């Protein structure tokens, strides 16, 4: 049985109060909270094993290298990688996506096409814009329906993925709408025309079991801080044969094989893409987070989140004056729920809720094109995780009703 109260006891910050209110943390799509186990692993590394990796030939160096490479093996097993060398550590998912864009971009030129979608996080838009500008390739994108799903019919009608397509890069789960996209089906379409499939899995890997082989992608990016790990560490998984064919992204120590003044040769993956001192303690913390999540069970976490999301959607759709962006049923969607209160700016909603201990996010969530497409300047987002309780959803709903009624006289409404 999933014991959410026992899980919450493993997160010291969740015991905090905000003034007279208990903390209700509903901003996990932004960053998740960290269990004591992860904090302790990072502290122990710094206090007992701190050294640089791969170059310090002493006991501490060997311990640090073992811990760093051990974390790589843990992450590889967690996502079903064929071998640890398919895991490249970056500083976040944004860097992982930039790595993908810049290295794949070396093979692009005029006449080639890159396909993304209008629902992407800016980190999966801007790098491809830059590559298109640099190479002369054309950037195209999936539109979305008014319900917040990829418009697959329009994409097929317009032959969005075609013989000119060289890269398709999509989010698996939208950080705004919660929409879960059929990336495996789209990967099959991409491969049918010889294109590479890149997946931004930042909002998927923390919440569900993943097997990269079954996903059908060629490169998958995600980040540690959304999955109970520390900030400062991200991951790019790639098929090893593809990684071997890609050029370096950054130059510096440890990514080289031989350096001469005239030229250099480069190390095999993943070292080729990890120039300089990597995020050592952060990787150790991510390994601890993987161990923590595995101990609870990703299937159990997914089931809990599905239940919480369905409950939250029911509570929010019952609030007069509140409109949800994206799917309103817990079907093929993640736990992030974005919405607006009629006539109340999301920043005002966020501020009032914060005064009542409810932590959410207001803004365009690094997805401005999506908001424009749906006719919104911005939105308010509540996002749950493995530690969220129905009582916290009740607190959110109560705070939103309070906020609506607080602003009603100014808006000329009567409640």
UniProtKB/TrEMBL annotation:
Its EC number is 2.8.1.7. Residues 24-396 form the Aminotransferase class V domain. InterPro entries: Aminotrans_V_dom (IPR000192), Cys_dSase_SufS (IPR010970), PyrdxlP-dep_Trfase (IPR015424), PyrdxlP-dep_Trfase_major (IPR015421), PyrdxlP-dep_Trfase_small (IPR015422). Keywords: Pyridoxal phosphate, Transferase. GO terms for molecular function: cysteine desulfurase activity. It catalyses: (sulfur carrier)-H + L-cysteine = (sulfur carrier)-SH + L-alanine. Its cofactor is pyridoxal 5'-phosphate. The keyword Transferase applies. Pfam families: Aminotran_5. It is an enzyme of class 2 (transferase). It comes from the Bacteria. NCBIfam families: sufS. Belongs to the class-V pyridoxal-phosphate-dependent aminotransferase family. Csd subfamily. This is cysteine desulfurase. It comes from Tessaracoccus lacteus.
């Amino acid at each position: 049985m999933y014991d959410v109260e026992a899980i919450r006891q493993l997160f010291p910050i969740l015991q905090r109060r905000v003034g007279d209110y208990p903390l209700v943390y509903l901003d996990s799509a932004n960053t998740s909270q960290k269990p004591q186990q992860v904090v302790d692993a990072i502290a122990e590394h710094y206090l007992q094993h701190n050294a640089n990796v791969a170059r310090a030939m002493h006991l501490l160096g060997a311990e640090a290298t073992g811990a760093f490479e051990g974390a790589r093996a843990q992450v590889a097993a967690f996502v079903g990688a064929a071998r640890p060398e398919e895991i490249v550590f970056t500083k976040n998912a944004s860097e992982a996506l930039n790595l993908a864009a810049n290295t794949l971009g070396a093979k692009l030129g005029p006449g080639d096409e890159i396909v993304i979608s209008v629902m992407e996080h800016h980190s999966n838009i801007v790098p491809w814009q830059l590559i298109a500008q640099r190479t002369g390739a054309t950037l195209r994108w999936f539109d979305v329906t008014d319900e917040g799903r990829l418009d697959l019919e329009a994409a097929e009608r317009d032959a969005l993925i075609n013989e000119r397509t060289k890269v398709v890069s999509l989010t698996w789960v939208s950080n705004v709408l919660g929409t879960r996209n059929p990336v495996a089906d789209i990967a099959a379409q991409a491969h049918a025309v010889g294109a590479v499939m890149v997946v931004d899995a930042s909002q998927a890997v923390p919440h569900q079991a993943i097997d990269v082989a079954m996903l059908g992608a060629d490169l998958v990016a995600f980040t540690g801080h959304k999955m109970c790990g520390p900030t400062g560490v991200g991951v790019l998984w790639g098929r090893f044969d593809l990684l071997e064919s890609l050029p370096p992204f950054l130059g510096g120590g440890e990514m080289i094989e031989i350096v001469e003044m005239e030229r250099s040769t480069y190390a095999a993956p993943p070292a080729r893409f990890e120039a300089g001192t990597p995020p050592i303690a952060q990787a150790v913390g991510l390994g601890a987070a993987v161990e923590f999540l595995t101990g609870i069970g990703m299937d159990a976490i997914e089931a809990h989140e599905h239940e919480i999301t369905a409950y939250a959607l029911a509570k929010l759709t019952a609030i007069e004056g509140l409109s949800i962006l994206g799917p309103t049923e817990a079907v093929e969607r993640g736990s992030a729920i974005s919405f607006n209160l009629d006539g109340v700016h999301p920043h005002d909603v966020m501020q009032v809720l914060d005064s009542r201990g409810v932590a959410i996010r207001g803004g365009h969530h690094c997805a401005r094109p999506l908001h424009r497409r749906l006719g919104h300047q911005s939105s308010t987002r509540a996002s749950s995780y493995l530690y969220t309780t129905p009582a916290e959803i009740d607190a959110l709903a109560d705070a939103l009703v309070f906020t609506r009624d607080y602003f009603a006289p100014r808006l000329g409404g009567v409640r």
